[in-house]
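**Archive record**
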Amino acid sequence: MKILVVNPNTTSKMTEKILESARKFAFPGTTISASNPIVGPESIQGYYDAAVCVPQIIELIKQEKDFDAVVISCFDDTGLDAIRCITDKPVIGIGEAAAIYAGRLACSFAIITTLSRSVPGIESNIYKYGLGSICKKVVASGIPVLELEKMDPVALDRINVTIHQLIRNFDIEAIVLGCAGMVDLANKLSREHNIPVIEGIGCGITLAQSMVKIGAKTSKSGGYAQPFKF
C-alpha cells in the first residue's frame, strides 16, 4: 500500500523529519511518501495559520493521486474534514489518532502542545472526537514549533516539568505530545515518567495502514459528500 503524509506547513526540513519517523512504522510492503505545500505558513500555530494553508493542502492532494491513505501530519488535524470530502481513501489526522490511542491505553490523559494559541483548537477537536471526558488537560509548553527542530536542553526540561505537574496535579495516566516536531521524544519521556507518552505520527501511520488493510473507505454520503465543484 502507499501512504501519503502531508505536512501542512512549508518547512521542508520538518517534512523530512516527519518522513523519516513515519517510515519506522511502515508495515511490510508499505511505501510512505511525504509532501508539503510550497506556499503558506512555515508553521501551523493557531486558527489563522490553519485556515491559510488548507487550500494549499487540498491542491497538493489533488495532484498526488497515487495513494491508498492520507495522514495529515499536524496535531491540529488541519483541513481534515475538507480533505475527506475530496477522496474516498482513509484520511487520518495525527492529533485524532494519538488521542484515540491514548484513550485505549489510559483512563485519563493530557496533551502538551506548543503555544497557547493552539490550545482552543485542540480542545475543540478532542470534544468532537468524543474524548473530552478523559482528556483532562491541554497545556502549552511555550515552545514554538520551529524551536522543536533544535530541541535544546532548556526546551526538553520545560516539557519534563510540564509532565511532572500534570501527573502531580491532575492524576494524569498518559501524555500525548501535541506536535509533529516532538516525535523523537516519546520513548525517552515514557521511560523517564513511567507512563505512556504518545506521539501522533506513529499512531497516524499505523491507523491509516490498518484502515487500508480492512478495505475501509470514507463515506460519500452526508458530511463527507463530494464537493459540488471538484
Notes: Residues 153-170 form the longest helix (18 residues). DSSP finds eight helices and eight strands in the chain. The helical segments are 12-23, 47-63, 80-84, 94-105, 119-128, 153-170, 186-193, 200-213. The CA atoms of residues 75 and 95 lie 4 Å apart.
